[in-house]
Fold this sequence. Notes:
seven-stranded parallel sheet; 12 helices; alpha/beta; three-stranded mixed sheet; 17% strand; Rossmann fold
Amino acid sequence: MGMKTFLVTGCAGFIGSNFVHYMLDKYPDVRLVNLDKLTYAGNLENLADLEGDARHTFVQGDIGDAALVAELLKTCDPDCVINFAAESHVDRSIKNPELFVQNNVEGTVNLLQRCKDAWYDAGAKTWKTGKKFLQVSTDEVYGALGPEGYFTESTPLCPHSPYSASKASADLFVMAFHDTYGMPVNITRCSNNYGPYQFPEKLIPLLINNAKQHKTLPVYGDGMQVRDWLYVMDHCKAIDMVARAGKVGEVYNIGGHNERPNLFIVKTVIAQLRERLGDEAISEALITHVTDRLGHDRRYGIDPTKIKNDLGWYPETPFEKGIVLTIDWYLGHEDWMAHVTSGDYQKYYEQMYKNR
């Protein structure tokens, strides 16, 4: 690939930290400057094994801090800015939509503006060569699907939650900077990720954590909401390919071809843990159906044909393999889980699920 410098925002979160590991494992001469605000889901333990690696520089800070971002762009001169930084949990967005506007919309716009300041010659109306801004987005910006069909890159945006509305708004700003100024950008929109380092507000790590402790397993409504599950390292590979070879101005959908109802996921985790741990108390009796989430989309499904045809990407990890890898990781990192579920997490959990 040649020596490349990446500014990776949200690097201590779930997908961001996996991407950092993926890039450092794959490329011996890559340089990553990693920026994270370290909110509740940003965890430096996710990057602890990289301490001392000269290719990895961590900076604590907010993507909305104009002076900090401008200084990083000046001193590090990244070839590519990859924006993972976002508030990402729908339930939290229902409780506090303003926070999602601040971080996901205003933060993204600040990144875009600072990149424009650093990379654009307004007099000549030219951009520095070799630069790119990549926005990591979500299939939730498309809204919901019926029992048939798939999201494509031309599906109209129709977000249904404050979270997805904030991500759709950020996407529109990214494309507006491309259309207005000619900024070199890409957007990726992925389906539900799972794998190591995922904060246990999300379904799979929450199930693993609760089941091991014989706590109830909360399932929204009838549990038949369908999601396309994508193993996180497959997603990281796709982002890398789009950053290197994606056509400027294009959107790429990234899906796993692993559509499963939520209730299937719950029962799979139960069966895996019961067998793995030899614990008969981990059973479907732990399942508790709770009041459905407001505005809960029934089904998502992604058509990743474009990224397959244009860049040769395909999902390598079937769900049956990915869920085993994921459970193995959490069983092998009990200290990590104990640390991230202490303190404020317990208050959050009670707010979300108690009395529902």
